[in-house]
Amino acid sequence: MRHLRSLLASLVFPLVCLPLGAQDVAPAGTGLQEPKPKVLGVDVTFLANAGFFLESGRYSILIDAFLREPTDIYAGLPDAVYKQLVNAAPPFDGLTIVLVSNDHPDHVQMRGLEKYLSKNAQSQLMASP
């Protein structure tokens, strides 16, 4: 679990810091315009239980997002959101890293993950062993 946290931190940290690095300032007196930042920040959307959707520019990260059925005390996604997700419909259709922290049913339900991966060739799955 510690390795997954390190991996997650190494992936999320650049997304959060990218807006800061994109705001370079032109040297004073050069007459150059300041460049506009390419990314204005990171949007974070809570999905269900431990699931999140992070967006920054044209990149996104899905974390423990594929929960259709409630498990114990943990809620699943609303039907409309789940259908959007597994069908890779906007906003879930871009260049996406899919992180699965563990294979417990309150973090991932494989059928939805498989469907999503088959519909979004731009996505890349990262999971613990």
Major sheet: order of its strands? 1-2-3-4-5
Low-pLDDT sequence parts: 15-26
What's the alpha carbon Rg, rounded to whole Å?
17 Å
Order of helices and strands: HEEEHEHE
Mean pLDDT: 79
Measure the end-to-end span: 10 Å
How many distinct domains? 1
SS summary, helix count: 3
Structure description:
- The chain is of the alpha/beta class.
- Helices cover 29% and strands 19% of the residues.
- The protein has three helices and five strands.
- The chain has helices spanning 2-21, 79-86, 110-119; strands at 43-46, 52-56, 59-63, 95-100, 124-127.
- It has a five-stranded mixed β-sheet with strand order 1-2-3-4-5, with helices on one face.
- Strand 1 and strand 2 form a beta hairpin.
- Residues 15-26 have low confidence and may be disordered.
Blueprint (SSEs and pairs):
Layout: H1 2-21, E1 43-46, E2 52-56, E3 59-63, H2 79-86, E4 95-100, H3 110-119, E5 124-127
Question: Key features?
Answer:
five-stranded mixed beta sheet; 129 residues; 3 helices; 5 strands; elongated; alpha/beta
Short overview:
The protein is of the alpha/beta class and 129 residues long. The chain has helices at residues 2-21, 79-86, 110-119; strands at residues 43-46, 52-56, 59-63, 95-100, 124-127. The chain has one domain (2-127).
